[in-house]
From TrEMBL, chain B:
It comes from Candidatus Buchananbacteria bacterium RIFCSPHIGHO2_02_FULL_56_16. GO terms for cellular component: membrane. InterPro entries: ATPase_OSCP/dsu. It comes from the Bacteria. One of its GO terms (molecular function) is proton-transporting ATP synthase activity, rotational mechanism. It holds the Pfam family OSCP. This is ATP synthase F1 subunit delta. Keywords: ATP synthesis, Hydrogen ion transport, Ion transport, Membrane, Transport. It is found in: Membrane.
């Protein structure tokens, strides 16, 4: 490039540059503290409008009162001083959306925090958006395979559903959703994991795990750590939802995990109390229900005319000592389409995932299951329910009749079948095979402690010897008489290779 | 119900507007006595400020601050006031402020609005562009 050229282009640029007189609306900060600011002036600011505090510090107007505005400050509020000027921007808070955010770790404002460089997207979505209306929606009809046998069989989750995961601390809530994300590999689902108030170390561990299993190729992590200001914790799930909505509008399937909404509620309570909104039950503000319902209403399954995309929401709630009747748990239970209960008692008994199959429900139900799974799962639910009843009863007496003994025998095996290690999602066809074997009594002659290795080896055996049978089930998504015969043959031929089966006469004795 | 300073200022304005010019002194005296009785003399400053806002609003007066690098002449001031009066459709009350930081041009401020045509603002814009 020549000197002359440079000078020419420079003069050209300078000619085009026109500095006009700027007209701005300004206000003055008259109170600041703990992440909030009160501002006088700015009479025409909108609710939820972004405010510019200067020095790259932004805020959001939340309270519009007669003489002042209450705003939350995003980022470093120590840089904002009393008397400093605030400009209105005329824009609602937005986050960057697009393909570029996939595989990245972002803060709730869409700024990368993973050190992999900046993101330059063309599009921005407002973090608060009205949920898709009735005419744009359609019923949930496609399953979202979690890879967890107990969930896919008994509490199926459909694409576009909102399923709550609730339990005490250390019961495997996060492990469950991470397994679900890992299982979406090759399923054409974009995942967004929103960490709200989680320890940064935990977030790093999750990202490392997702990366190691190749799940970051389709996952975005939105992280607002435990030390982040309450304003950012409050925005995080809305930001994650907005990022997901972009892909939904592209006709894709999206899974958004909010981990967890109890901390979100606490952050919102902090913001609301600082803004002097009146406290209600448990000091939460009156609109805490509306806050969560408008977030979760944005989960939807759009119909064909609107692109056919979907956004599945998996909110997590942490209970204290199993108290599901506290304020926030009951609120979110009533908003979602079902819940998965995790119990620490079951966890310590070694039943992992520690899902209480009696209290967990999915209100969308079996419409989100493939036919083959429906066939085996219906019997499973019934047998498990009977087993639970009898198991509690049988603890007191040893003299049991034959039918009861059989039922308990079967139930113990079913419980074993539903156990599953972490990071071990099972493909749906293998799930059908395992559950078919269990509910049809093919495991009755396998000792309880051998059920798990038996199933693991059976899966391996089926992958080599029964490939055709499995791919048939996968293609037809149904289990017809032929398929059933093939499964029975497969299980029988595998059984010949193991030596720990209990003989039927021993069984009777 | 507790009265706000705004409401008190508004009441004073209404009382003064309805009374004859000769009686105004009396009205103000009565008003001060009322403040005393209500134990809100300490809020007098705020009430006066609210009264000014109330008066300006009712009479269609817009207080405008004009900031320049060097002092404006009387004709320049009148020109600015006239221009603003026709665009805002209000009587203009001009306050002059000299701040050499602007380098050149002028900055107008009324209500929440700032109209910035100073060299300093242009330089700031140029810096953002780079």
């Amino acid at each position: 490039m020549h000197k002359q050229q440079i000078i020419e282009s420079l003069t050209q640029q300078l000619k085009q540059y026109q500095s006009s007189v700027t007209v701005e609306k300004v206000g003055t900060v008259f109170e600041v503290g703990d992440g909030i600011a009160k501002i006088s002036g700015l009479a025409d600011a909108m609710a939820g409008e972004m405010l510019d505090f200067g020095n790259n510090v932004f805020g959001v107007a939340l309270n519009l009162e007669e003489d002042f505005i209450g705003a939350i400050i995003l980022g470093d509020y120590q840089a904002v001083a009393e008397g400093s000027t605030v400009k209105s921007t005329g824009r609602i808070l937005e986050v960057p959306v697009g393909e570029q955010i996939i595989g990245r770790v972002l803060n709730p404002l869409g700024i990368p925090v993973d050190g992999k460089g900046t993101i330059s997207t063309e599009k921005f979505y407002p973090i608060e958006k009205i949920a898709p209306r009735v005419i744009t929606r359609q019923g949930v009809n496609t399953p979202l395979q979690t890879g967890v046998k107990a969930i896919d069989a008994m509490i199926p989750i459909g694409r576009g559903q909102r399923e709550l995961i609730i339990g005490d601390r250390q019961t495997g809530k996060t492990a469950l959703v991470i397994d679900t994300i890992i299982n979406q590999k090759g399923a054409d689902v974009i995942c967004i994991y929103v960490a709200i108030g989680q320890k940064e170390s935990k977030t790093v561990r999750i990202v490392a795990e997702l990366t190691a299993r190749g799940a970051m190729e389709y996952t975005t992590v939105v992280a607002a750590g435990a030390s982040a200001p309450a304003s950012l914790l409050y925005l995080a799930p809305f930001a994650g939802c907005a990022m997901g909505e972009y892909f939904m509008d592209q006709g894709k399937d999206v899974l958004v995990v909010y981990d967890d909404l109890s901390k979100h509620a606490v952050a919102y309570r902090e913001v609301a109390l600082l803004l002097r909104r009146p406290p209600g039950r448990e000091a939460y503000p009156g609109d805490i229900f509306y806050l969560h319902s408008r977030l979760l209403e944005r989960a939807a399954r759009l119909n064909k005319n609107y692109g056919g995309g979907s956004l599945t929401a998996l909110p997590i709630i942490e209970t204290q000592a199993g108290d599901i009747s506290a304020y926030i748990p009951t609120n979110v239970i009533s908003i979602t389409d079902g819940q998965i209960f995790l119990e620490s008692d079951l966890f310590y008994q070694g039943i992992r995932p520690a899902i209480n199959t009696g209290l967990s429900v999915s209100r969308v139900g079996s419409s989100a299951q493939i036919k083959a799974m429906k066939k085996v799962a219906g019997r499973l639910k019934l047998e498990m329910a009977q087993y639970r009843e009898l198991a509690a009863f049988a603890q007191f007496g040893s003299d049991l009749d034959e039918a009861t003994r059989k039922q308990i025998h079967r139930g113990a095996r079913l419980t074993e079948v539903l156990k599953q290690g972490q990071y071990e999602p099972v493909p749906v066809t293998i799930q059908v095979l395992m559950l078919y074997a269990a509910v049809n009594g093919h495991l009755d002659d396998v000792p309880t402690e051998k059920v798990q290795p038996f199933l693991a080896d059976l899966a391996e055996y089926a992958a080599t010897q029964g490939q055709r049978t499995l791919s048939n089930i996968a293609a037809r998504k149904d289990l017809d008489a032929d398929g059933e015969r093939e499964l029975i043959a497969l299980i029988a031929s595998y059984k010949q290779t193991v030596d720990y089966l209990v003989k039927s006469e021993q069984l009777a004795a | 119900m507790k009265l706000t300073t705004k409401q008190i200022a508004r009441a004073l304005y209404d009382a003064l507007k309805d009374s004859a010019p000769a009686a105004r002194q009396q009205v103000i005296e009565n008003f001060v006595r009322l403040l005393h009785e209500l134990h809100i003399v300490s809020k007098a400053e705020k009430i006066i400020a609210d009264f000014v806002t109330c008066y300006n609003e009712a009479e269609g007066i817009e207080p405008v601050t004009v900031e320049t690098a060097s002092a404006l002449s009387a004709t320049e001031q009148a020109e600015i006031a006239g221009q603003l009066a026709s665009t805002l459709n209000k009587k203009i009350e001009l306050t002059q402020l000299v701040s050499p930081l602007l380098i050149g041009g002028l900055r107008l401020r009324y209500g929440d609005t700032v109209i910035d045509g100073s060299i300093e603002a242009r330089l700031r814009q140029l810096r953002q562009l780079a």
